[in-house]
User: Fold these one by one.
Assistant:
Number 1:
Amino acid sequence: MAAQKERRLADSGEVPPGYVFEQFRVERGCLGYVVADEKSRRAAIVDPELEMVEPMLDFVFEQGLKPFYIVDTHTHADHFSGARELKAKTVAKIVMHEEAPSSAVDIKVEDGDRLWLGEDLPLKFLHTPGHAKDLISVLLPGRILTADALLIDSCGRTDLPNGNATRQYHTLYYVMGSLPDELLVYPGHDYEGRSYSVLGDEKETNPKMNFSSEDEFVRYMEEENPGTLTPVYQLADALKANMA
């Protein structure tokens, strides 16, 4: 099924004004985003799954946007990234964390780095490992793109290559835990048809953010959580393609 986009209008009261924001979804639950400055028209495309490439390009050009950056938040293990295809069709540069193994990366970032789409629109990168060692979340005015670091009512699994439950605990309880409650959370996956959450609600009700200790969290993620998850059938092929 072709990727579907979900419009979040800046004047709806649901999202902060001042910049273009569009969410894209494919049938398997992967979510990707286009963020752009309203004045400069500079755009960043975040986590483009392969099926999202054409709908994202259609949106970018329909809106008169200029793709500057393609942000892959981490080396995806469960699907094929469309970053290389987007790079071949635009002048945008691929952005990933400095630990990402891909040879296609043009700009490597570390925790706290910023790239600017406009005078008032920074992309601030937070290193949020656990699901993957090179995972970054993207902090925007009023919202955060959390990829697999924080999902709605859950978090990314830590039993895949380069996953680490201890680092995932630090990401949830210290990095996410220190951010403002009012931030809107836009994850990299959702399987229930939801578009976003609110960070304060996640802190209060997300089971993965309410363990009584680090040891209890790590034990659950390493021993019990894998048994609740479905196998990743394209693991080897996806990793090989996305790491190349």
Note: The domain at 4-243 is CATH 3.60.15.10 (Metallo-beta-lactamase; Chain A).
Number 2:
Amino acid sequence: MRRATNRPARPIGYHALRSQSHTRRIATRTWFAVLLIALCPLPSAAGPLDALSEGDAAGGLRQALTQGAAAAVEKLGRADGFLGNPKVRIPLPEGLRQAEGLMRALGMGKQAGELTLAMNRAAEDGVARAKPILVAAVKKMTVDDARRILTGADDGATQYFRRTTSAQLTEQFLPIVTRATEKVGLAAKYNELAGRAAKFGLLEEKDAKIERYVTGKALDGLFLIIAEEERAIRTNPLGAAGNLAKKVFGLLR
């Protein structure tokens, strides 16, 4: 026999309200747990590198960067390095490209072809002389630079090269490109027309001189191939030259 109690009768909807309250408590606890997880420090991406001394990490990276830079220069700094590679081949500037069909119809196709050849040959010549600048940038790399590259983006080394060598490479490339393009009469004509277009905002200033246009494209091509070499080393550390490079990038996999 159930014992009678003096507990007051529960209002209609009591169980539904209690269930909702219980659900809210669970949800609150869940979000609190998520917040704690979010606030707790996660293991650093540099974790595997802690087993290495800073000197070893920087030394391994220098080996890999020297290898990647040399491979990029070897691929591009030779005959048809640019001209024969669709990924980096330098086309006529936009202003000339739009008129190329008309130029060929007017019998100027030979000049257009000569200019394209001269631009790509100049880029190949410039890149062939880039290795000392890239190697010097590797030697100047600090331990902090190395750590940022190793724990940063997949193209961290390429970004480092772009940041530290672009100005010097531009200075070196410009005279080479200028000499090569000046031999083609169409280059002077382009500079004249492009200069006028730039004044009216019809063309970007960097493309108003063909030598600057070619230099910019040559640098873009160089850094594109360096990035490919960097990805290859990160993907396959065993292919890296030097035991330290293998060790460092092997830990990052």
Note: Residues 11-17, 22-47 have pLDDT under 50 and may be disordered.
